[in-house]
Specification:
2 copies of one chain form a homodimer.
Chain A: H1 25-31, H2 37-45, E1 52-54, E2 60-62, H3 64-67, E3 77-83, H4 93-106, E4 111-115, H5 120-124, E5 132-133, E6 136-139, H6 141-145, H7 151-171, E7 178-183, E8 187-189, E9 199-201, E10 212-214, E11 216-218, H8 223-230, H9 234-243, E12 245-249, E13 254-256, H10 257-260, H11 263-270, E14 277-281, E15 286-289, H12 304-313, E16 316-320, H13 328-340, E17 346-351, H14 353-359, H15 372-391, E18 397-401, H16 408-420, E19 425-428, H17 430-433, H18 439-450, H19 466-476, E20 482-485, H20 487-498, E21 506-509, E22 529-532, E23 534-538, E24 543-547, E25 567-568, E26 574-575
Parallel strand pairs in A: 3-16, 3-17, 4-15, 4-16, 8-11, 17-18, 18-19, 20-22, 21-24
Antiparallel strand pairs in A: 1-2, 2-14, 5-6, 6-14, 7-12, 9-10, 12-13, 14-15, 23-24, 25-26
Binding site for ATP (chains A, B): 87-94
Enzyme class (chains A, B): ligase
Pfam families (chains A, B): FTHFS
């Protein structure tokens, strides 16, 4: 039964008169009437309506049954957007990704951007929404920030179904031999809720299970989130779920989801969530938003499925990776590319005048004052990231996300510094101007790709022992003098090798605010020691996490949560979501 | 921007050759190609596409922005489907509701049916799916049973957002004066998970909140579920949320959601969920499925919104209420009708030969053996329900949900018994035959409504004190000799009166398996004592719950959960969901 878009539906709306820069994001977002998503998919990609699963008129999932898995022979080029070390000044990686894609489309390039999905937790805590900003946004903004097509809820449900099956298994006698003292599988919730970090469940007597210590993480920290983002189709998803290690027997042998037989029901809950979501930018260019694993204890990139499908439908695909290039780009290449076979054809390194000045120690209150010397001083951070990307075989294009207070001299300083590295630095004004403000950047990226295909290299081979993999990242990217493994971490890494997981890549969980494990060490520190406090085996996601310092897997709410200032107006529209 | 269905899309598929009776429900469901839901809404109701929010091609929500609130002057007639006391033999209330609606449509009546949404918990535990059965089913069956348009996930998120705001409020010093020892708001999850019933949260030190006892209920037990089902639009939803009492101060004065200011953010999360869902039966007749509050500690009916919209779009609307008529019909009338102004125009009382025989004590293994005497003996249960419905001013049509093993004599016995009450009893075979098996029933319901409008009466007036309301239900419907209030319950009811909640209706939470609080007391017991163990004030939902006996608000999984036999086949289709 062919389902098609309505041929009589109007074409994409003419370019709207947008509110002035500085208007709240949600008001800018709401001022643009989105294009019918089925029509957009037909016009841009020639896709019939039954190849999509609409969620409302402006969001859709790609119907995997229609497509099958994409053929790499059809892939366009892949552009990785990464950034300098984040500061409270804000760098605008998502905004740049959206703006660059709009810029590419203005140049006539058939291009899409792939982003991560936002979490409800930060949305109601402090951060607000996460769908770009200014005139470089994705719409419908409220829907993307709230429940977005049910993906995170499905992950939460699958994760907690497994938890309930585990506790039920213990309640009925633990046929598998799983030792309740060694259950490592916690529960998750897509909220910030500190009271759930540490708890004792199973209280109230024998009818109510076995009392034991456990807790909740935020959903983006779930291994299932990472699995959904790494999975290459339903069969791979199911196999990865079955490989998850949920605890140990008394003899410390691992118990997997497959041992309990829960992977089938979990896959049922995740079936729809595995399908990439299609939405649009303010300029009606296609945007894929799918998956959102933490960039510390997971790999911080959108799903492999979304990247694959986007590549098969476009000539160029822009994608972003979480935090700075030390975490995001490294994991993108060493984890996501290694497992999926994908390779970036170019990299964009986002920086701002303000961020470099903060790296040099300038106070946030003085960022608006021109200070070329501070830009030079803080550029060691930018240069370290350029050097690092070179180690992966990538020469980045630096995108200077321009603020109104940036002076021409400061911009010129960044360009001069980059010039010394043989790197182009392009000011971009997509936040204020949309795609029109990013055509220079888009052209520079196209030029870079025209100049030749990069020879992308992993930082380490699969065969290197896990400890040496961690040491390689620490010394070659972070310029650490050495790694300090805790006795537990050392013992566990040895055990993982013995269990046959030594070939896995490692995923460093450390602060995003420094090349070191100390968030206060700005710029480009060297000679520091990277402390590996604990390690975790994500056998389903396919990596070993090395936790360096304190990593929070369940955030708390601030004294006055953003939630308390939100609501619906008389028309039923959301206010307070910024 | 007008969005319309595709005019060139094919008409509803011709009547399919369905698999034979006895085929698993999911296979029957999957053998029918659903009609495009936008096209169905256009053909049946004349609705343009932008009045609907599609979720895939076969499910949609009604877009409240398009409609506004329906005008009662446009309402069709409302038929309440209720049942005798449930037994393990299964009565088929949902199946009858779906079949009756298909039967009405076969008679040329413009009719829809309103049902409750299924919960994920029982689906993975024992019960399997809940979208009718046999040839009286709603499709797409898997989608309705899994995540259905995100409603339950939204309720879970809104409920737990409030919980996180409460614990955060305590963590930062409890500005409202809320006493952490008196927090009554728990958390919810849409799963069966006994280990979460009783827990201590906030462990791990001062940075992780205040340790306190709490627990999780299943999402269908959330007061927010009841609120969503009672709310009459977004403004009413917000007001009801603000009225929720989440705990007490040291002086025992109640603290509400409004005191914390959380109702706006909660309303944001619930905005889409408040809109009724439209799907279709196997025979492509419109079905509204929306909301699913527990039928014990809540009122057990689909949403007021769905009933309202369905009534404004149809000449007849069939709706069901949970459990037997003692719980379901009573709450439908005394709570839902009282609050919403809706009134039933007719009632259908579902019974089976098997159920009556079980009421008489026949063992489940002997139900297939004809036994007219047992039918007579068990009919006291049926007769009690008929008498009770008469007290509400309703003369029911009895629907005998016919099984292949039922003898003609047994059917005739039920008809004779009903005849003595002036009630028609119609055998119906929708399970085996679809709507064609329910046209006699449909005609009888139409005849009943043609005969005159019932004078529907509440069982008690608003002004009656809460204790007397409970006593009225217990003595007049359950034939209890008296009510035994625990000292706590008595004290709390007095307090509710003092706080100004004495005008609320009461919601009895008792076993569904008996007119008494003892599930083993079958038939039509009288002279028993109804023990009210505790009471709860649902100030947002608008009723006072009287808990009689043990009521489980978080189910557990059985030794071998249904989840372990589920999965996706190579085509990505669900198996094991029954």
């Amino acid at each position: 039964m062919p389902l098609q878009y309505n041929e009589s539906a109007p074409a994409a709306p003419a370019e709207a008169e947008l509110p002035p820069p500085g208007t709240p994001d949600i008001e800018i977002a709401r001022s643009v009437q989105p294009q019918s998503i089925l029509l957009l998919a037909q016009q841009r990609f020639g896709l019939p309506a039954d190849s999509l699963i609409p969620f409302g008129h402006y969001k859709a999932k790609l119907n995997m049954k229609h497509f099958g898995l994409p053929d790499p022979a059809t892939y366009g080029k892949l552009v990785l957007v990464t950034a300098v070390t984040p500061t409270p000044a804000g760098e605008g990686k998502t905004t740049t990704s959206v703006g660059l894609n709009d810029g590419l489309n203005r140049l006539g390039v058939k291009s899409s951007v792939c982003l991560r999905e936002p979490s409800l937790g930060p949305c109601f805590g402090m951060k607000g929404g996460a769908a770009g900003g200014g005139r470089a946004q994705v719409i419908p903004m409220e829907d993307i920030n709230l429940h977005f097509n049910g993906d995170f809820h499905a992950i939460t449900a699958a994760h907690n179904l497994l938890a309930s099956i585990i506790d039920n298994h213990i309640h009925w006698g633990s046929e598998s031999g799983l030792d309740p003292r060694y259950i490592s599988w916690r529960r998750v919730m897509d909220l910030n809720d500190r009271a759930l970090r540490n708890m004792i469940v199973g209280l109230g007597g024998a009818a109510h299970g076995l009392p034991r210590e456990t807790g909740f993480d935020i959903t983006v920290a779930s291994e299932i989130m990472a699995i959904l983002c790494m999975a290459d189709g339903l069969a791979d998803l199911r196999q990865r779920l079955a490989r998850i290690i949920i605890g140990r027997r008394r003899d410390l042998s691992p118990v997997t989801v497959g041992d309990l037989g829960a992977e089938g029901a979990m896959a049922i809950l995740l079936r729809d969530a595995l399908q990439p979501n299609l939405v649009q930018s303010l300029e009606h260019n296609p945007v894929f938003i799918h998956g959102g694993p933490f960039a510390n204890i997971a790999h911080g990139c959108n799903s492999v499925m979304a990247t694959r499908y986007a590549l098969s439908l476009n000539d160029v695909v822009v994608t972003e990776a979480g935090f700075g290039a030390d975490l995001g780009a490294e994991k993108f290449i060493d984890i996501k590319c290694r497992q999926s076979g994908l390779r970036p054809d170019a990299a964009v390194l986002v920086c701002t005048v303000r961020a470099l000045k903060m790296q040099a120690g300038t106070a946030k209150s003085k960022l608006a004052t021109p200070d070329v010397q501070a830009v030079y001083a803080g550029s060691d951070n930018l240069q370290r990231h350029i050097r690092n990307l070179r180690q992966f075989g990538l020469t980045p294009v630096v995108s200077i996300n321009r603020f109104p207070t940036d002076s021409d001299d400061e911009i010129a300083a960044i360009q001069a510094i980059c010039g010394d590295w043989g790197v182009r630095a392009i000011p971009a004004q997509h936040w204020a101007e949309g795609g029109a403000g990013a055509t220079d950047l888009a052209q520079a990226v196209m030029d870079q790709m025209d100049a030749g295909e990069p020879d992308v290299q992993f930082l380490y081979p699969d065969e290197l022992p896990l400890t040496e993999k961690i040491e390689t990242i620490a010394t070659r990217l972070y310029d650490a003098a050495r790694v300090d493994f805790s006795p537990d971490a050392k013992r566990q890494l040895e055990e993982y090798e013995q269990l046959g997981f030594g070939h896995l890549p490692v995923c460093i969980a450390k602060t995003q605010y420094s090349f070191s494990a100390n968030p206060k060490l700005r710029g480009a520190p060297s000679g520091h020691v990277l402390p590996v406090r604990e390690v975790r085996l994500c056998a389903g996601a396919g990596f070993v996490v090395a936790v360096c310092g304190d990593i929070m897997t369940m955030p708390g709410l601030p004294r006055h949560p953003a939630a308390l200032d939100m609501g619906l107006n008389a028309e039923g529209d959301v206010y307070g979501l910024v």
